[in-house]
Design goal:
single chain, 345 residues, alpha/beta, 13% strand
Amino acid sequence: MPNRSPTTSRKKEHVELTLARDVRFRRKTTGFERLEFVHNALPELSPQEVDTSVPFLGSTLRLPFMVSCMTGGYADALAINRRLADACRELGIALGVGSQRQAMEDTRFHRTFAVVREAAPSIPVVGNIGAAEVARLHDAAPVLRLAELIRADAVAVHLNPLQEFLQPEGSTDFRGVLRGIGMLVRELPVPVIVKEIGAGLSADVVRRLLDAGVGIIDVAGAGGTSWAGVETLRRKDRDFPSAFWDWGIPTADALRAVAPLKREVRPFTLIGSGGVTSGFDAAVCIALGADLAASARPVLAALRRGGTRGAVRLLRHWERQLRAVMFLTGSRTVADLQRAPLRTV
């Protein structure tokens, strides 16, 4: 009989809390609202000429979007991940699964992860494992098995010291994480993505990750879902944890700090996430230096309300917003949008 993972019930609780409760940052914002594009009254192109495609993980995405890592590892996640994969396949965008820690502990729910590749054989799919697990690895074999489970095009390592610190059953020993990431970069046959989960990455942290060989960074900044808030709601003693509800680096600030490292250190792929709730937000991320934008909770909420069609409708709305911004800034390509001027308001 397979082992029963304690992670299973926690994964379900996380998803339910993010959908049923207000777990957004309370005082801190992404910083997107402080920025607006400089209008270009001479765009010298037609809307039909706008090209939103970007290269990512050996494929060409039709849109510079990714549905970020969110769920898997419990029974209900099978239908969620299948529908998310259906939506991403239809739109030609990338998809990340939630933490696969549960799949390391328990074989019962492997298919809740594997279904994404069954449903979407041609899009980039990203696996996911936590920093605390990486710190304990002696070799890449366990993570390789997780990658093979979903035929992943990359594996994301999520850095979440704040969440682990506040989580009642959290793993707080982060010694050896950078060593473990470097080992995965060397030994895995697919690229390693390193991301936060809503508290942001600083330029110093990203420099160290680049030195370790990481080639894809997701800043996952503050201003969207507060995982400190999620864990606060899960605890009985909420007074102390609630002080950290708004802890983190706003997404816009993180992108501004990290994007220059593409020139100063070496080129890498930069993902903007953390509070991305529209095509306008995605466009701002790109203008701040990101190569694509990622979002999780808004897409999952649209899926809950309207199934696959609901998620597709939301993302097509974001596409229309992105295309409008590109036209009105004279940006024929996503690379052009990266050079579009922003002003502070």
